[in-house]
Amino acid sequence: MRDTVYAPGVAARSERPANDRTLLGSVRNAARVLRTFSSTDQALGVAEVARRLDLSKSTAHRLLATLEAERLLEQDPDTNKYRLGLALYELGSAVTEHIDLHAAALPVLTTLRHRTGEMVHVAVLDGLEVVYVERLESNYLLPIFRQVGHRLPAHWTSSGKALLANLPRDDLLRRLEGAQLRIRTPHTIHTVEALLVELDKSAKRGWASNIEEGHLGISSVGAPMRGADGSAIAAVSVVGSSTRIKQNMASYAALAVEAAAVIGRRLGYRPTAMSRGRRP
Fold this sequence. Notes:
This protein is an alpha+beta fold. It folds into 2 domains: 21-84, Arc Repressor Mutant, subunit A, CATH 1.10.10.10; 95-266, Beta-Lactamase. It has helices spanning 10-14, 25-36, 46-53, 57-69, 86-116, 158-164, 169-176, 192-205, 242-247, 249-266, and strands at residues 73-75, 82-84, 119-126, 129-136, 151-153, 208-211, 218-226, 232-241. It has a 6-stranded antiparallel β-sheet with strand order 5-4-3-8-7-6, sandwiched between helices. The chain has a two-stranded antiparallel ribbon with strand order 1-2. Strand 1 and strand 2 form a beta hairpin. Helix 2 crosses helix 4, helix 3 (46-53) packs across helix 4 (57-69) and helix 5 (86-116) runs antiparallel to helix 10.
């Protein structure tokens, strides 16, 4: 059961526009509107935005109304002026979280790689895919593609299964409803029912495994890391040849769990008695 390496969108993300003809003028104008706001200009009206950006009032009004509909701006009902909306705060928090994750994870990953000698990753969940956001190579040459930004179906990977296992049950079932699980190797879990059984097992023991489910000869173990609010925001995985992973699975899993816990604490997670051993 052969398949191509699954990396949707990688080429698109790597290409840069050759010239301005590839850019959308409306999106650029919307970005210009957002950048018009500042700490000293927190509230602006239609006429002022139009003047500053050399737009017609009708164009400025449409842009402001659209951005308000997307919660990027909000309008004061008393003054009719606009200010930055909560959705921008949420996006900014996501960027800050990623930067914090990099700073918190890198020294811990370095130690984990040193202790195992294997390739180590940090991945986040996006729908039913994992995206690798941190990666440290091992001394072993592994025939796999795992650059930062690479995506894989979550059910192929230990990181993905660790994160799926820690979703609230209703969220998990909603994501899996009608899902077609792609088969990569003879060992790939390919039914939702079998995946749910595997995820329950992973949730109980606190880590997940991948035994040649995404690539023959390659296996891994992964553990979820929690953010300040206690939710699983990413996963740490140790990846290596199936022979080494199987021989060292218990110790590698314990090290992955420990590394995920250390990174979580660096991000502000403080487990309580109730949250220890919590099931989704």
